Amino acid sequence: MKYNISNIIDLLNKTSNNIIIITHDNPDGDAIGSVLTMYNILLKKQFNSINIVLTSNYSNKFDWMPNINKVLILNHYNYIKICKKILKANIIFCLDFSNTTRIHKIEQVFLRSRGIKIVIDHHNDVNIKYDFLYHNNLSSSTTELLYDFIHKLNFEKLMDINIRNCLYTGILTDSNSFQFTPSKHKIFQIAYELVKSGVNNNYIYDKIYHFNNYSIIEFFGYCFYKKTHFIKNDNNFLICIISISKEEIIRYNIINDETKFIINYPLYINNVKLSLLLIEQSNIRTKISIRSKRNVDCNQIAKKYFNGGGHKNASGGYINMQLDDSFILCKKIFSDIRSCII
Fold first, then answer.
1. Domain range for residue 249?
2. What pLDDT, on a 0 to 100 scale, did the predictor assign at position 121?
3. End position of a domain, from candidates 209, 230, 253
4. For residue 241, is it left (φ>0), alpha (ψ between -120 and 50) or beta?
5. Residue 150 belongs to a domain with what CATH number?
6. Is the sign of the CA dihedral 280, 284, 287, 290 positive or negative?
7. What is the dihedral of CA 58, 62, 68, 69, to 10 degrees?
8. How far apart are CA 341 and CA 238, in angstroms?
9. Above 90 in pLDDT, residue 171?
10. Contact 274, 297 (CB under 8 A)
11. 239 Cβ contact list (under 8 Å, min separation 6)
12. How many domains does the chain contain in total?
């Protein structure tokens, strides 16, 4: 059975339901903002059982967010307990992902679950069995979609300052401080409404972007000095590739989400149009993140070369090779296609 918004309203008026909220591996600001928005909304509805499950840890820059301490982080010791919770759930909210490969640690348990699956996401690669899908790839973020979803549920009166802070955090981070705005004016309208209602945008910006410790800045400097390769076109920098090993992440005590910030810095260089970040995940797999300026389509590049996808200016994928071989392959690919990137 496929559910409509009226069915969802009825479901969420039955507080006896057992609810699980999940998001993708290596959660970013939009993922954290989304799950905490939904958790805090459901708390106000006084549900008997609500659990947020994260398959990997989050950056401590989100420690200030309301009820972040209630999150269950999957590990070796609680794996069976969390799997049982997923299997017992009546409702499962899937936020900021619509492809089960992005929750690979619990993918099989999720697929076995008979709970009603409510998917809210803005990514292109929808590949999930759902009962209700709220999706728009022209939204800047899942939190932007959640803002609309809350209004469609007629739950807007439940939106206190904590919930508004969660929404603003997700929108701010996934739009890269309002640089990626596929929904055009709408994102600014929502941000205006949130700030008008009491959100302190300067406070949140400081918490997210001015929270780096010395080791992160040192790590960034190391990457730019030692790990950065530029591909030129007509003697101008055009494409930047940064490769990072697992050993280097451990050495500098970096959480995976914190590596995402480094990918944007090469785009500050005048003629750089495309920035790639390669992160070693195992001896046979390398994660690829891609960011671009203006009309360079990351999504098409990720689909064609890296088994992935995403958005026009922000996408990702992977290569089933070790890091060094992945780096060599990327240099070849982008040396060959650099004339197409203008």
1. 214-340
2. 97
3. 209
4. beta
5. 3.90.1640.10
6. positive
7. 80
8. 8
9. yes
10. no
11. 230, 231, 272, 273, 274, 275, 276, 334, 338, 341
12. 2
Q: Which two tokens stand for residue 225?
A: 């000095």
Name the band, by pLDDT with cuts 50, 70 and 90, for residue 191: very high
Is it the case that residue 236 has pLDDT exceeding 90? no
- pLDDT tier, 342 (very low <50, low <70, confident <90, very high otherwise): low
State how beta strands 274-282 and 285-292 pair: antiparallel
- List C-alpha distances in Å: 16 to 13, 42, 109, 233: 9, 12, 23, 62
User: Which residue shows structure tokens 């990702």?
Assistant: 316
State phi, psi for 299 to the nearest 5 degrees.
-60, -45
d(CA 59, CA 165): 17
The H-or-E segment that residue 336 falls in is: helix 323-337
CATH of the domain at 259: 3.10.310.30
Among residues 54, 55, 48, the alpha carbon closest in space to that of 19 is found at 48
Share of the chain above pLDDT 70, in %: 98
What pTM value is reported for the model? 0.87
The pLDDT, as a whole number, for residue 257 is 67
Shared-domain flag, residues 173 and 292: no
Q: 298, 313, 33, 299: which is closest to 178 by C-alpha? A: 313
pLDDT for residue 183 is more than 80 = no
Percent of the chain with pLDDT over 90: 70
Q: Alpha-carbon distance 303 to 315, whole Å?
A: 9
